[in-house]
TrEMBL record:
Entry-linked Gene3D superfamilies: Dihydrodipicolinate Reductase, domain 2, NAD(P)-binding Rossmann-like Domain
Keywords: Carbohydrate metabolism, Glucose metabolism, NADP, Oxidoreductase
Swiss-Prot/TrEMBL catalytic activity: D-glucose 6-phosphate + NADP(+) = 6-phospho-D-glucono-1,5-lactone + NADPH + H(+)
InterPro entries, sorted: G6P_DH (IPR001282), G6P_DH_AS (IPR019796), G6P_DH_C (IPR022675), G6P_DH_NAD-bd (IPR022674), NAD(P)-bd_dom_sf (IPR036291)
Protein name, as recorded: Glucose-6-phosphate 1-dehydrogenase
SUPFAM superfamilies in the record: Glyceraldehyde-3-phosphate dehydrogenase-like, C-terminal domain, NAD(P)-binding Rossmann-fold domains
The Glucose-6-phosphate dehydrogenase C-terminal domain, residue ranges: 308-604
The organism's taxonomic lineage, starting at the top: Eukaryota, Viridiplantae, Streptophyta, Klebsormidiophyceae, Klebsormidiales
Amino acid composition bias (Basic and acidic residues), ranges on this chain: 83-92
Residue ranges annotated for the Glucose-6-phosphate dehydrogenase NAD-binding domain, each copy included: 127-305
Functional summary from the UniProt entry: Catalyzes the rate-limiting step of the oxidative pentose-phosphate pathway, which represents a route for the dissimilation of carbohydrates besides glycolysis.
Pathway given in the UniProt record: Carbohydrate degradation; pentose phosphate pathway; D-ribulose 5-phosphate from D-glucose 6-phosphate (oxidative stage): step 1/3
Region listing for Disordered, in residue ranges: 83-118
Length: 609
């Protein structure tokens, strides 16, 4: 066999070795391959280039057209080229921080890679569903915080839009009750609030009326004058009216000379089919470029730090594989029930509400291969690959639970989920679930990824735990007693509350003799970054929309991959009417979670602290 033929026949093997998570294997294969290496690298590089310009989604190959600013124009544009051409947004010119903003804000500003809006253009954010809970609780306060920090462009306008009748003044009163100056020592906070509120307006209108949006358009134009007008519409409304609003806003209130971007809140459907229909409905009126599907967990400080930790420290990435990691746990818990949102929740349940989106996004970020760059499409390509490599979820790897009434020792009574008046008394919707998942690729083969999410549990937390394998031939094994599991390293990223990253290690207790102790190498954010306040995830994400940075938003194929993974399980649970295991309000959740973990030789990290 000629060298070229044997090389070509062996390409897969070389690929596997050179891509192997094992540094030893990689090093050995490099030595073996040395004489052939020039030839091989050439072949492999060609293959990579080809892979980069084409992608495979749901088994169909898409060639990614590249937009003028270098970003790939995603699937909707491919699917509907004529519509997409019309609606592909213009890239905004470069943007500066607002005059008078803090030096830190100015510095952070420079650090942002995605320049946005120039000082002569205007930017409006229309909050559709302004009378609702999310708008009051999160969106308006986030916009104020951005204004306070000087991140909003000089000429900006905020519009509230909903059916409720309200005057501008009433909207301002409503908003002002939720604005807070998060740091006591902040200067001019009151003045800043007044300045902010002056820029807030309200328009009452129907969600399916182009005329109402035309009226809004006229009002926006008054504010915009003859400047370049960039417009953001934040759809903070129930999903059944997303498409109506996309249609009316795009036909009657799109910017004629700047960008028009639309933020879409979850839930993006209930399953693969409904999510596909929703995506198709939106794609009739908007290009994929214009759609920002928000998952607020991606805007959390610790989640942003996950990639930094992994890719900018030498010590983690070499360990990031089945060779060293025994299991990964992604845990979400709340110490309150569905209070006030039972009507919504009963139609979705904890798997759709938290796991299919927030927790799966964390998993994808953690498990993805190193992206080619930090560009949005490069990161999202890797996330999609990780999601598409996941094994189907098996019912026997799933536990579901529902909270029941509980009276504490002091006599305080907590309701059952089904006590909520908006929830049917015979509901079997899970308020708790844990799932063992597996990724079928070279890096993660056989490593259990355990997800756990629940409401009305004993504490409120969101964290990622990475438990490492035992130290081979551990010289100190006799110091750990019989339970070697207790001596393994564990890396914990606590997303909330009290953001922290800590690594559990073994060390010697000071003194004579050798006694070992478990302790934490601990990065407590509050301690390390005393003077810093952490922006709410909505601040980061809204700013990204203004700047056109899609890194932290869900792409259409990513959404489809997530639903493809969960839909069969959700169908099976519903068809088989799987009854949830009841757990008392305020407890640690169903005991089944421990059996599931034990099946894979895993001990929940959050239960041992
Ligand atoms: N609240 C939260 O914590 C979170 C919410 N979300 C998502 O954000 C979006 C907004 O949430 P939230 O503010 O809680 O929602 P709301 O139920 O408060 O609805 C927002 C506004 O939409 C209008 N609206 C409500 N129901 C209907 C309806 N059936 N038909 C037409 N209009 C309606 C109402 O305004 P009006 O009557 O004045 O027109 C309401 O003020 C939803 O998609 C939700 O799933 C996501 C994460 C968390
Ligand atoms: O999306 C949702 O998230 C919240 C939890 O968000 P957090 O930022 O407070 O952790 C959850 O309560 C809600 O049910 C869900 O829809």
């Amino acid at each position: 066999m000629s060298a070229a033929r044997s090389l070509s026949a062996g390409t897969l093997a070389f690929d596997a070795l050179l891509d192997s998570p094992s540094s030893t294997l990689r090093a050995q294969s490099r030595m073996l391959a040395l004489p052939l290496v020039d030839n091989y690298v050439g072949l492999r590089a060609t293959a990579k280039l080809t892979r980069r310009s084409a992608s495979v989604r749901d088994g169909v190959a898409f060639v990614e057209p590249v937009s003028s600013n270098g970003a790939a124009v995603a699937a909707a544009s491919v699917a509907a080229p004529k519509e997409a051409e019309k609606k592909t947004e213009k890239a905004p010119p470069a943007r500066q921080p607002q005059a008078g903003s803090s030096p830190q804000a100015q510095k952070d500003f420079k650090d942002m890679q995605t320049g946005g809006v120039d000082q002569d253009s205007t930017c409006s954010v229309t909050v559709v569903g302004a009378s609702g809970d999310l708008a009051k609780k999160k969106i308006f306060p986030a916009l104020f915080a951005l204004f306070y920090e000087g991140y909003l462009p000089k000429h900006f306008t905020i519009y509230g839009y909903a059916r409720s009748k309200m005057t501008n003044e009433q909207l301002r009163d409503m908003i002002s009750t939720t604005l807070t100056c998060r740091i006591d020592q902040r200067e001019n906070c009151g003045q800043k609030q007044e300045d902010f509120l002056k820029r807030c307006f309200y328009h009452a209108g129907q969600y399916d009326s182009e005329d109402s949006f035309k009226e809004l358009d006229a009002k926006l134009r008054e504010q915009e004058g003859d400047r370049t007008a960039n417009r953001v519409f934040y759809l903070s409304i129930p999903p059944n009216i997303f498409v109506d609003v996309a249609r009316c806003s795009s036909r009657a209130a799109s910017s004629s000379n700047g960008y028009t971007r639309v933020i879409v809140e979850k839930p993006f459907g209930r399953d693969l089919q409904s999510s596909g229909e929703l995506s198709q409905g939106l794609a009739e009126h908007l290009s994929e470029d214009q759609i920002y599907r928000i998952d607020h967990y991606l805007g959390k400080e610790l989640v942003e730090n996950l990639s930094v930790l992994r890719f900018s420290n030498l010590i983690f990435e070499p360990l990031w594989s089945r060779q060293f990691i025994r299991n990964v746990q992604i845990i979400f818990s709340e110490d309150f029930g569905t209070e006030g949102r039972g009507g919504y929740f009963d139609n979705y349940g904890i798997i759709r509400d938290i796991m299919q989106n927030h927790l799966l996004q964390l998993l994808a970020l953690l498990a993805m291969e190193p992206p080619v760059s930090l560009a949005a499409e490069d990161i999202r390509n890797e996330k999609v690959k990780a999601l598409r490599s996941m094994k189907p979820i098996r019912l026997e790897d799933v536990v579901v639970g529902q909270y029941k009434e509980h009276t504490s020792k002091s006599g305080v009574s907590y309701p059952a989920y089904t006590d909520d008046k908006t929830v049917p008394s015979n509901s079997i919707t899970p308020t708790f679930s844990c799932i063992a998942m597996f990724i079928d690729n070279a890096r993660w083969d056989g490593v259990p990824f355990l997800m756990k999410a629940g409401k009305a549990l004993n504490d409120k937390r969101a964290e990622i735990r990475i438990q490492f394998r035992h130290v081979p031939g551990n010289l100190y094994k006799n110091s750990f007693g019989t339970d070697l599991d207790k001596a393994t390293n564990e890396l914990v990223m606590r997303v909330q509350p009290d953001e922290a990253i800590y690594l559990k290690i073994n060390n010697k207790v000071p003194g004579l003799g050798v006694r070992l102790d478990r302790s934490n190498l601990n990065l407590q954010y509050a301690e390390r970054y005393k003077k810093k306040e952490f922006p709410d995830s909505y601040e980061r994400l809204i700013l990204d929309v203004i700047n056109g940075d899609k890194r932290l938003f869900i792409r259409d194929d990513e959404l489809a991959a997530a639903w493809k993974l969960f839909t069969p399980l959700l169908k099976e649970l519903e068809e088989k009417q799987v009854a949830p295991e009841l757990y008392p309000y305020g407890s640690r959740g169903p005991i089944g979670a421990h059996y599931l973990a034990a099946k894979y030789n895993v001990r929940w990290g959050d239960q041992s602290v």
